[in-house]
Amino acid sequence: ELVAALRERFTDGPLAGRRVLITAGPTREPVDPVRFVGNRSSGRMGYAVAAAAAAAGARVCLVSGPVALPSPPGVERVAVETALEMHAAVMERVAQAEVFISTAAVADYRVAEPALEKIKKRADILELRLVRNPDILAEVAARPDAPFTVGFAAETGDLERHARAKLEAKGLDMIAANDVSAGRGFDAEENALEVLWPGGGTSLGRQPKTALARALVALVARRMEAAGRNPGPA
Amino acid sequence: ELVAALRERFTDGPLAGRRVLITAGPTREPVDPVRFVGNRSSGRMGYAVAAAAAAAGARVCLVSGPVALPSPPGVERVAVETALEMHAAVMERVAQAEVFISTAAVADYRVAEPALEKIKKRADILELRLVRNPDILAEVAARPDAPFTVGFAAETGDLERHARAKLEAKGLDMIAANDVSAGRGFDAEENALEVLWPGGGTSLGRQPKTALARALVALVARRMEAAGRNPGPA
What we know:
The structure is a homodimer.
Chain A: H1 2-10, E1 19-24, E2 29-30, E3 35-39, H2 44-55, E4 59-64, E5 76-79, H3 83-93, E6 99-102, E7 109-111, E8 125-132, H4 136-141, E9 148-155, H5 159-170, E10 174-179, E11 190-197, E12 200-208, H6 209-226
Parallel strand pairs in A: 1-4, 1-6, 4-5, 6-9, 9-10
Antiparallel strand pairs in A: 2-3, 7-8, 10-11, 11-12
């Protein structure tokens, strides 16, 4: 309490005292006790955003899938594995958040009926039936008391059109899109982002993810102000 | 050449001068450019075995799927991603190996037709059709000039029966089985192994993977000798 109060009092970054909820990393959807459907997210971008938001004065909670990264200093980390676990962890905390930044590569599908024992390789062909996971980002953006909601979009072609469509379909306040053709973006130290919002946008050129994260956090603070979502210090 | 010659001359470990080929880690089978079917192998056991074999005087080549581990000192590492890549890397090198230790959790199945662009989440249900990957371990063991071949078996029940069946079906010289019920074994620092060979076996009790790896390597050297596969220094 005291530490939090002192931090709010003495911090004057662009997100001073703001509660920021961030998701990061991949989710893993079990096929059986040893196999899973995963994705190439390293979590680096999300961890860099969490570190940048904390450095900008925010109180950051990071809901993270399995990654090989240390928690950024001053950030509360909640470890999850599946999309359903990430959904639950976010929904528990979103009412308290003023900003929600979804960098996680949440699996769109989970295996309908994961096997309880390791599947033996008897058959020549294995058919996996996958069903849709909840769309955490859209659900957060659709809340009546939605925080300032920022999505990420990893695309393999027609970047801006796909990202703009997602921004509008989900009713986001901002979306940051990157090109993952041929593995770009994932598991790399550098990245570039097209950042879009209703009626505008900007490009953040190729640079280390730490620098990119600081630029994005500064942009979030400016857009919140422009949208009247930043009525003075909290 | 000189370094290798000197190393052989001055090393007197139980695998002095032996060429040991080891596979480790998971493989990743692409669903599309960002999604894959993977498994929970951390690679720790295989990396520990590689380090122990090198410490026992062997010349070690480690064919490794994607893991977050540094290469053990003195070990040549070949990085692969899919089961087909691991198969190719092993087959290129196996003729030179006197020992083959398969610790990798090679995917039994790969996606029949990976998508070239990221799959959009249009449908409520996604059917993935998986086809069998080659069985690297069985193929190595079946070679006329097969090295001393050691398999690993991760099982979720009836450990010894499943492992003994695998030993016999694949014609292995040795198999090391561990229980992965409830995630045990994977991603852990400790492990326990049931080690079986034709006509015998022993238990290596729960201990750090590094100690377990040294015990296993010593056992490999003894069994090679017992099987007449160790006719004096190479």
